[in-house]
């Protein structure tokens, strides 16, 4: 592997890892703070991708043409969806055991899949990236890198930093962290924990939906796409340490590297390498890389 | 007797009479409905393919007035999720619990192989309407197993000849690491290397993984004359889009087995323009038979048919031929099988017969993407028969 190829593979790994982080961050937040195992989290990613396909014609003609308008409207809808879901379903799950949470959120997956099938059908759809982000960046002879993938990496990186900042450096982040450690204590200090949880949940949903929207042009839009991403996101959460944003970022990047270079250097084993990585890390650190709280 | 009792009795009599009436046609025929088990993917990356197959299958039965060999058809459907690990359970349920007379399925080769194994053991008639696993009409072949589609070897072999004739010497192949992909690549390699070319690198990734970016970078680094690929369904959409997005479409020509651009063109859009693929069907054959089929399919489903619809349609045609020969009594296995073996199936793709191992002997077309169609460019290989290696029939 020459240097250019190696560098491009690093970009590939970074892009995949960062996108993975974006989806997994909501999962680990909801798991770490509210203690809810949310199997339906992958469905939010799928909903995002289908929004890029189905919402764009309503908002801006195409996803390509109405890129920012679609993203904005999609985000508003996602926050609303998260808020309503938390109020209607998840707020009842905090005190329940994990088995009940798994059953309930699994049921939600089925509901979302059926709704998706009813509303937009079972076909695979392609979504065009916006024109100003189309094209490739030349990196040496014959070697190029798609601009849109760079854009994804950039956006994810900014969001990751923003999330980290909010979580560790702001009053809101402090309240959230305190709420995950001792719900009653925070409540007795006069903080509306119910509202706080609702905000965190809605944010988690919105981030996953957003990831689905921006990933649509590179992943295409297809039934069941949420479940594929859910499994790998659980690996991210487990490796990173439940509830840890920093852990999730590191784990997602690790998986990006292992997956990308595994495919190229060890193609026969590439399907299992990520799980081998998970097993090895859990052997050394049973609670994941960073244990939150 | 009170009036309410009278009404009750007269109602009961009326109900009895009605049920007797409705039972009459069955009594007259002496045959119950024929139970057809459809084991197809209705979710996941192959969902659209499963639906097209079912549409095609139902269309032929509708054209026959809802009956084959004098028997009405009852469907039992199972979503196989393209998951080989669930296949044996699913097929056993269809045979043992639902008592189906015929099995139709599936799209994924791994699932079809599990079905073939159970069909062979139990003697249940199986018609494979898509999965091209060479083994189904190779080592696993049986007198009760038929295929209405193709073997993976066929389009690959035909494309190998085409690419060699174009003068390409160095080719990289890329596919999912599973039976269908491996076999398509093997067929391609066989004829391409016979024609003087060399496959310099064989890339693959696990099914149904669609993160191609790392492998596309490898292709760019290897700088081959051309790329041959096998992908289908959602994966095919993504691959064609990623190939173009990586800037490779302009520099390295891409060739594929036809599934790359069949049923996927709407989603691929401009990224698929001009791609060359080989398959046993094209969208503009423009024969009277095909035109009639396309018109009736479009009327029935408000959709344009694709190769999967044709394969489903022909599976029903093959079943019809067999059932007609035994007057609906599918228990007469030998006569049923002989009838299909001797038949010339009047397919929309052009008439075909079955090889010794029950795989279609058919023309493989070279098609070029133009607009939303896979247009006929030429015949890549005339009456190409799968070698049926390992089959003892």
UniProtKB/TrEMBL annotation, chain A:
Superkingdom of the source species: Bacteria
Chief site of localization: membrane
GO CC terms, sorted: plasma membrane
Pfam family, one: BPD_transp_2
Topology of this chain in the membrane: Multi-pass membrane protein
Any one GO biological process: amino acid transport
CDD domains: TM_PBP1_LivH_like
Keyword ATP-binding among record annotations: no
Residues in the signal sequence: none
Subcellular location as annotated: Cell membrane
Ranges that cross the membrane: 16-40, 52-85, 147-167, 195-216, 228-257, 264-284
InterPro entries noted in UniProt: ABC_transp_permease (IPR001851), BCAA_transport_permease (IPR052157)
Keywords: Amino-acid transport, Cell membrane, Membrane, Transmembrane, Transmembrane helix, Transport
Family: Belongs to the binding-protein-dependent transport system permease family. LivHM subfamily.
Protein name as it appears in the record: Inner-membrane translocator
Organism encoding this protein: Albidiferax ferrireducens (strain ATCC BAA-621 / DSM 15236 / T118) (Rhodoferax ferrireducens)
From TrEMBL, chain B:
Source superkingdom: Bacteria
Residues of the Leucine-binding protein domain: 34-370
Keyword presence, Signal: yes
Keywords: Receptor, Signal
UniProt signal peptide: 1-28
Keyword Signal (UniProt): yes
Entries under Pfam families matching the protein: Peripla_BP_6
Family according to the record: Belongs to the leucine-binding protein family.
The protein, known as: Extracellular ligand-binding receptor
Lineage, uppermost ranks: Bacteria, Pseudomonadati, Pseudomonadota, Betaproteobacteria, Burkholderiales
